[in-house]
């Protein structure tokens, strides 16, 4: 089990890497501008914690608003008693500095790794030499001309043969549909195809169940929750298997099942996507599995 698990880790990390933008788009799509909140009040001792808790259910909207009013950066204190400090930014120059040019100045640390334990071993939670190594690996995989060409072909194929077909069908039968759900399905398929080399097929006329996409959203929600509550609180909930921690556990199971299913399908039919030409090993999962360092 432990060997199998360690093989899955980079795949997990890559899955998360690709699905994060999906989650971001999804969350942005649900933004509503009826918000009248002001900048968080900085109380003594409790700092901004009460405002964060009050806005937990619409964290993206709330942070967007605060960032817009604070010149794209603000500092915040973590939950009372934890001594945690946050620097929240949406300034591209800062983001580039933190994630790319000077990322070594910003080690993630053990607390962060604990919060994102579902991605343990992946680029989001590791530091030092392993992080440098995995960055180099991911960069080289994602910039491979072969993969880029394939992503282009997949994307065109998806839009032509699924999205347009879907729109045509809905228009000809005058059926209404949920655009946000449709986009989630499209983004999920588009993210999973380069990752596994097979099409999960969430975007199709029969609208199959989308547990894996929902589980991905749950993972992100619970991560937010863990960031804003004291560590002792979510760790206790995890031990008791209640609330968000229970949801996370279920989501983890769904995602493991999904990854396994994709791997099985990839093994059975290595060229199940595309125009029938064989592209052995041109997907992110294969490039990790073929690398002795990760297996
Ligand atoms: C950021 O990195 C560059 C080189 O990558 C270096 O020249 C610069 O001094 C670094 N800045 C800080 C604040 O560490």
From TrEMBL:
Key words, A-Z: Iron, Membrane, Metal-binding, Oxidoreductase, Transmembrane, Transmembrane helix
UniProt GO molecular function: heme binding; iron ion binding; monooxygenase activity; oxidoreductase activity, acting on paired donors, with incorporation or reduction of molecular oxygen
KW Chloroplast (keyword) present: no
SUPFAM superfamilies tied to this protein: Cytochrome P450
Domain of life: Eukaryota
Transmembrane region(s): 9-26
Keyword Cell inner membrane in record: no
Family named by the database record: Belongs to the cytochrome P450 family.
Protein name: Cytochrome P450 86A2
Organism: Aegilops tauschii subsp. strangulata
